Amino acid sequence: MFYVPVLYAIRTRFLKRTKLGIFFWFAEYLFPVLLSLLLANIEPISIFQMLLSVVCVYCFYEIGYIQNDCETIKKEENPTLRLSEDELKIYERNKWNIYMTRGVLGILFSMYYIQQGIPSCILLPVLWGIIPLYLLYNSMRNRLNQYLVLFLMVYRYGVPFFLYTHFNWNCYLLLLIIISYPIPTFIQEEFYKLKYCSTVVYMVP
User: Which of 6, 34, 98, 142 is least buried, going by the fewest C-beta atoms within 10 A?
Assistant: First the structure.
């Protein structure tokens, strides 16, 4: 679970909500993302490349999930527990292997997309930049988090589009991606009310 991109998110986020969590993940995330990739009108259409872009994003993004679920909870008085006691023990015994595996996968993804023609000066900051951003998000529980969570959601929805199109900046499709879920969720989430928000309650982007 810790080593496989996408599997960790499904196990700890969507299946925790309901047994039908995989369908919620498809409806809330995979469907709008794949739709945007189809609308990008890239020929020939490659389902493999579409899914690969999603797996790549989750490879990096889940590092933030893992760090939050296994490290950040140690500093909180009433943490949100998404892993069982046995799973936390597995993490503690294998944490360096877990992060090294994710790092190697990240390097392989980076090499692949650079070979596909995406400039490294753009690709590397975009892919690897999510890690310090998520660590910053995990380290704080204040008003700034309400803005960081929006960036995290936009990253998860938007980066697959840019990987698939080799960073073709289609503003209209990017806007479609953002308004399909990140912005409505950001606005509606009661834990992140913009007015007089003195205490930020943990929310998973």
Answer: 142
Whose tokens are 């929006």? That residue is: 150
Our count of domains for the chain comes to 1
Cα torsion 97, 71, 155, 1: sign:
positive
116 inside domain: yes
Q: What is the pTM of this model?
A: 0.83
Q: What are the tokens at 31? A: 């469907």
Region for residue 71 given its phi and psi (left: phi exceeds 0; alpha: psi -120 to 50; beta: otherwise): alpha
- Domain for residue 164, yes or no? yes
**C-alpha torsion angle, residues 33, 35, 41, 42 (rounded to 10):** 40
Give me the domain span that covers residue 19: 7-192
Q: Is residue 150 part of a domain?
A: yes
Residue type, 130: I
What single DSSP character describes residue 87?
H
How far apart CA 78 and CA 202 sit, in angstroms, is 11
In angstroms, the Cα distances linking 171 to 67, 139, 167, 178 are: 33, 32, 11, 10
